[in-house]
Task: structure prediction
Amino acid sequence: MAETEQQTDARLVMLIDDEPAQSRLISAIAAREGWRTLVAPDADTAIATLGTREGMQLSAILLDQWVPGDDACALIAELKERRPALPILMLTTSASPLLAVEAMRAGASDYLVKPVSPDRLMEALRAVTTREAPRDELAPLTEKMSASLDFDAMIGTAPGFRTALAKAAKAARGHGHVLIEGESGTGKEMLMRAMHASSPRSKEALRVINVASVPPNSIESVLFGHEPNAFPGAFDRQIGAMQHCDGGTLLLDEVDRLPAPVQKRLAEALDTGIVRPVGAAHGFRIDVRLLTASNFPLKTLVAAGQFEKDLAKKLGATLIAIPPLRERTGDITALTRHFLARIGEQPGLKHLSVSDNALALLSAFDWPGNVRQLQSVLFRAAVYCEGDSLTDESFPQLSELLGDQKENATNHLHEGVGVMLYTEDGNLRPLEEIEADVIRLAIGHYRGRMTEVARRLGIGRSTLYRKLSDLGIDNVA
Result:
């Protein structure tokens, strides 16, 4: 059993892994955030370690599924039986939703698909071991379900959200670069994919790169490629993503994480239309459309000297801002039903309904992790649900986080489920406001299918569009 040489008061994680190279890598990543790592090469050693002095100081367990193989879930169950409060994260190369369900039912807190980025690994560790963070049980799980690639899958009627969708739908039909800004988990990558699917380049080459998941010293080579011997370890020629996507589209998520030198190179490439691989004497002329996303406003980063002004201007030729979920709480009910329908289609899970009390609880929370966090929480609740419906009891830690705010949950529910008829002073709301709310509700319920919205409301399609204009309601049709 090996141990990293760190201070004795560091948090301690046990890694169950029989690959020395991966063990050293994970230990080094964990050490950067103050963790010590105990490495157990097999299941028997791991179980025996729980009873040792150091085993009693463990804060978490990382389990590589390859070590116990088909018995991974049995090992998780045994570890949880011996130490019920100890969080377990499973590392695996499988993206199977069924394996995720089985691992979580056995007691795993999260499920990470390899190769996992250092940021994602440490985010998962922090999430299962930190009580003060509001994500806690609400830790984002790795996405288990394939995302839909059209605008119909973007659920919501909030004006700011519909405005973003309308702008994205219009921009998708062009060829210019697009920048999508919004907090983590708001659906930026999903929107970029929907735009690509609706674009004239939808049949051409596509590459998706999350900048944060690529080591800073490798991102230049990933984007522009390199020639043999361009740097130590560059034994072969590599074609970069920009050249690979010639005539097509490159999706860059978390573009705000680009290192400064790469920002300048990218700005120059977009300006000249020429990409020169690292170590190459000559470049290649390309035609690439960039759809990019940033967790932070690039304008703010430019003002702080943290982002290249010229690049920000080029990427943001069309700028789309997605509002956080806390600014569109009225969409939580529709999102919940949508996610539960998709979750019910996954192997090992079933279709579940959701009670009004549960919807009230979900609507009362401010969701710092946004839509991705909501989906993760629902996925987790569905895994452990033994009945046919999720109730407020399905979200115990959410109730704990809300505390006294839970009493106000019913008010949040009313904001999201139906249409309020009365003002706070007891008088009826103006008919125009009620009508606008009904139309927004219908658009969200029927996922923006305007012909269906008009039919269900009993009016003609042209009448519906006139009302949208008169009432100032944005739409994507």
